[in-house]
Design goal:
With 384 residues, the protein is α/β, with parallel strands linked by helices. Helices cover 23% and strands 31% of the residues. The chain has eight helices and 26 strands. The strands form seven sheets. It has a five-stranded parallel beta sheet, with helices on one face. α1 crosses α6. The longest helix has 16 residues. The radius of gyration is 22 Å and the shape is globular.
């Protein structure tokens, strides 16, 4: 039995590692569009912007790595499902795992101007790092976690930083309005201008950007612009296949697609989650590694496992922000340590009196305690 993995980032690498840890000794071929060996993406918006750090994920795990190669479509062969590559060759195996990730969204008004960046790859991060070292005025489009992390680094380098966010309550969709506002307040406390409820209408400049015009008519000077407005799953290459594609490759809770022996994991997958009772696509590090474990178990015939609760973390302005679980808009928020006015705090999201998610700033020990409690009972939480 052989396995083909399309995508050589965290999800694909983790899948190979988990197969080996389960004793799978067969042939594994990994196709990756980037020329770089597998690396970890979260540091790209954090410590990597300060200087080179080792973000490689590990050794080759006894796999055949086809890097700098792009998949063009799903192929059906006598051996099993496979992919057609950009040089016309077909790579197939008994099982096919799609881990093609996602790409950064951009804005049409960027129109190819120099000095306008998105962040997804190590090459993107190197370009942004170079820009941060010379720019005096930086405009970041999007006040999500990526934008906030880049702003945190940029302000330490002495730049004047502005964040533009279309929503009036940044991060409220992630943490809820109360805790989202708590995170948004970190920008002003560290000298970053946060403009909410406005959008970009125009980037000014001839060959390079020099200013950003907003919908309220105001003009922000900009030596560099970083766009952080989310990501789009890389699924178009397989659009002519019988796979079900809807904001990602749709799978069951074991990461199996509608086509036998084809799995999808990571940022490109929209898996059914028992804890939510619906399909969900997540772009967090923990989700990619969890789905790799689930798919690896299914491939080798081990008992299925549920996808665990969401966990992610963000480091901003020297503060550690952590979240685990699944919140709904009507969940109650209760502080169990500190409050919005204290340097560190921990809060529980509760539903029917039961904790379903936990949030913390600079309180890793208490956060971990409640995270473990929540993750031990995801099935019970889904019924609340």
């Amino acid at each position: 039995m052989s396995v083909v993995v399309v995508g050589a980032s965290l999800a694909g690498f983790s899948l190979v590692r988990d197969l080996r840890e389960r004793g799978y000794g067969g042939e594994v071929t990994v196709v990756g569009e980037e020329v770089h060996p597998p690396y970890d993406r979260p540091p790209l918006s954090k410590e990597f912007l300060h200087g080179d750090v080792d973000i490689t994920l590990g050794d080759d795990l006894g796999a055949r790595w086809l890097l700098g190669r792009r998949a063009l479509g799903i192929a059906t062969t006598a051996m099993g499902p496979g992919v057609t590559l950009d040089d016309g060759t077909v790579v197939a195996g008994r099982s096919l795992v799609l881990a093609t990730g996602a790409r950064a969204r951009t804005l049409p008004v960027a129109r190819g101007l120099g000095g306008v960046h998105t962040l997804r790859t190590i090459d993107d991060a190197r370009a942004i790092r170079a820009a941060l070292r010379t720019a005096r005025n930086i405009v970041i489009i999007g006040a999500g976690l990526i934008g906030a992390e880049i702003a945190s680094t940029a302000v330490t380098l002495g730049a004047q930083v502005s964040i533009v966010e279309l929503a009036t309550d940044p991060l409220s969709g992630v943490f809820g309005p109360q805790l989202g506002a708590l995170c948004a307040d970190l920008h002003a406390a560290n000298g970053v201008q946060l403009r909410t409820g406005v959008a970009v209408t125009e980037f000014l400049g001839d060959e390079r950007v020099n200013a950003v015009r907003l919908t309220d008519g105001s003009l922000l000077p900009a030596d560099a612009v970083i766009i952080g407005i989310g990501a789009i799953p890389n699924t178009e290459w397989a659009q002519d296949s019988p796979l079900h594609i809807d904001n990602g490759f749709v799978t069951d809770s074991c990461c199996r697609t509608a086509v036998p022996d084809i799995y999808a994991i990571g940022d490109c997958a929209r898996a059914y989650q028992d804890s939510l009772g619906t399909h969900h696509r997540s772009e967090h590090w923990s989700n990619a590694t969890a789905q790799a474990r689930i798919a690896a178990a299914a491939i080798v015939g081990e008992p299925p496992a549920n996808i665990p609760n969401t966990y992610f973390w963000s480091r901003q302005y020297g503060r550690m922000i952590q979240f685990a679980g699944h919140r709904r808009p009507d969940d109650a928020v209760r502080f169990i340590d500190g409050d919005p006015s204290t340097p560190s705090c921990t809060a529980l999201y509760e539903r029917a009196g039961e904790p379903v998610a936990v949030f913390a700033i600079d309180n890793a020990r208490l956060f971990t305690r409640y995270r473990k409690q929540i993750e031990r009972r995801p099935a019970a939480i889904a019924t609340l």
